[in-house]
Write a structure and sequence with these properties.
Length: 101
Amino acid sequence: MYILMVELRARPERLDELEPVLRALAETARTEPGIVCYAVQRREDSPDVFLLCEWYRDEAAWETHMALAPVREALGRFDALLAAPPAVTRCAPVALACRPA
């Protein structure tokens, strides 16, 4: 598994623009066979912060994801939309208990 946790802090004046970009990324992820889970959350105590949990089958699946045109387009917009660079943490799985919603 190749797992990333990503924290994105929106510029206050661009907050309404970031969420649709992240929703579109999640829709793109639905069609990728190498993605195990791609979840976008928003912090309740800090609504300008989004947390992405990205589970890929392996690093090659992540590389495939990053090369897709919709992903490259979204990343190209991040400078204008984000107040700070994305904070990316690589994780190792310990335990998992998930069910489809």
